[in-house]
Amino acid sequence: MPTTHPLITADQLPALRGAYIYLEPATEAHRELLRPDTYDTQFDDYYNIALATTVNEDGQAFVIRQTKDDRILGMTRVHNVVRKDKGCEIGHTWYIPSVWGQVHNKECKLLLLTHLFERLGFARVAFRVAHQNIRSQKAVEKIGGVKEGVLRKATIRNDGTWRNTVVFSIIDDEWPEKKISLRGLVANHQTVSL
To answer: Residue 106 maps to which CATH number?
Structure first.
């Protein structure tokens, strides 16, 4: 694995620390720490792909930790990086159920989007959500994602059924305004103690 990564270097890690959460690059050492909080029988396949994203330098997988006690709350990825077009996606994000709807996801996206737009110069960050996952679609809209459309029969699920994918994005021209709104959501949110 490279000592530095095209999306995050050791000196940039403090920028991915907020009041409630911080992000650290996912490694093999996190696998068993994450496993108890997963409910997916495909966890090892998922985690192998996440780590390969980093090794192949087309993204970065992160573990999401709670600032106050270092507890692992979930995981997220920057992936499908296309440097020529200055675009990428944020996705494959999950949290333990006890923090759903709390401040953690909002601050995670604020930290990642600030890093991607302001430090790395990306022009477009996309989010892809399964059509039936209304909760996640609302979460993406709440952080400022603009719905672009639906990719019909975009992928086949593990059970063989089709999944439509709803695509959202934020572009660099919109980011300053969206950042103000997202900062407000984080600042005004009352967290519950875990």
So the answer is: 3.40.630.30
Closest to 186 in 3D by CA, of 100, 102, 121: 102
Domain total of the chain: 1
Q: Do 144 and 185 meet the contact criterion of CB atoms below 8 Å apart?
A: no
Give the residue among 176, 8, 11 at the shortest CA–CA distance from 76.
8
C-alpha span between 147 and 166 (Å, rounded): 7
CA 73 to centroid of chain Cα atoms: 12
Classify residue 165: in a domain, yes or no: yes
* Band of pLDDT at residue 157, cut at 50, 70 and 90: confident
Residue type, 68: K
Domain that holds residue 137: 10-187
Average pLDDT of the chain, as a whole number: 88
pLDDT the model gives residue 3: 37
Residue 3 within any structural domain of the chain: no
Tokens of 159: 């059970």
Dist. CA 19–CA 85, nearest whole Å: 32
